[in-house]
Amino acid sequence: GRIGAMYGGKKNEQFDDQSEAVKAFETLFLDKTGNNWSDRGTFKKLPSKFYPLEIDYGNHDIKKVFDNVNANKCSNLPKLVQDLICFIFDIESMEKALLSFEIDLTKMPLGRLSRNQLNKGYQVLTKLQTLITNDATNKTA
Prior knowledge:
Elements: H1 18-33, H2 62-68, H3 71-74, H4 79-88, H5 91-100, H6 115-140
């Protein structure tokens, strides 16, 4: 939910056996996603429903990568442009900004989306770009 919202929270239930717990989970999954758990291999995105994200839980440390890169040796860009790019991709500043908005970085999958999930997002953005370009071309014609 939204930050500061008073609804939602934690729900703990006790079940007598595993099959009862699995059935409750499957019912909740269907309610939240509109898809049956048994059909998750052919998941269909539905409006106003949750969509599972593929998360990469690999131990990739982006900070180490950026710390090992010497921008002066790797780039022919002007120093001001290099400084701007370093500012935009400053992980510590991003973390501080997100924390100031009370965003829990351990629960948000930012930076941990799988390559497949990123490719799907890229395909959607490419399609949008094509539609916008075609619409602009049609209006000028």
